[in-house]
Design goal:
With 249 residues, the chain is α/β, with parallel strands linked by helices. It is 31% helix and 24% strand. The strands form two sheets. Strands 6-7-8-3-9-10 form a six-stranded mixed β-sheet, sandwiched between helices. A hairpin with a 2-residue loop joins β4 and β5. It starts with a strand and ends in a 26-residue tail after the last helix. The mean pLDDT is 91. InterPro entries: AAA+_ATPase, ABC_transporter-like_ATP-bd, ABC_transpr_CbiO/EcfA_su, ECF_ABC_transporter_ATP-bd, P-loop_NTPase. Belongs to the ABC transporter superfamily.
Length: 249
Amino acid sequence: MNILAARQLTHIFPNGTEALKDINLAIRDGEFVIIAGSNGSGKTVLVRHFNGLFLPTSGEVLLEGVPISKNLTHARKNVGLIFQNSDSQIVGQTVAEDVAFGPENLNLPRQEVDDRVREALEAVGLSALADRQPHTLSGGQKRKLAAAGVLAMKPKVIIFDEPFTGLDYPGVLQILKQIVGLHKNGHTIILVTHELEKALAHADRLVILQKGRLVRDGDPNRLIDEVESYGIRRPYGRNGGIETMTWLS
């Protein structure tokens, strides 16, 4: 079953820049999809349409077969987007307050909010830091906090936009383990990245954008030899294939 779909999706900014052109893409429930492309290819613009942060100039996005434009609140509850700059998502005075922000805005009972906060912090390994001020966290911890805030909304789809940027090796491992764990627990994962070597071995599918168009879509093993032609660094496994190239081995 398709959980998300874009149909003839086109986005033109007010200055006339055509960021996306006729994107047709269907994502199945439970998939782990990587969206890649060089700078300016339209990756971030595309995923911001998936929960209604951006609205298309033409075309539409469907969530479980229903246009998200009919209920943006429902879309933003069920499609969680974790930005590259996690600081932009932090609003609480403490870690726990930050995670509670989304559920509180759903007008849930206090006990359910507290339960969701506890579960989300446990899921990302931040329970011990519940009373910390977010600005004191490391870069990796801030991204885990942003993920907890999304998890507390209990979304069906989780989108990570360039989650590895600026992280050291331990930080990358923390975030990658979290992403892979969420996928194993049944979440549909969409990962926007140009660093294929970090995550491609775990993905079911690779989608490549170029200049606002979807140019390739398929099995990562079949597409790995083509990525450099689209301005993306090719990852090399020990035996030349992505199946041997995992940071979690």
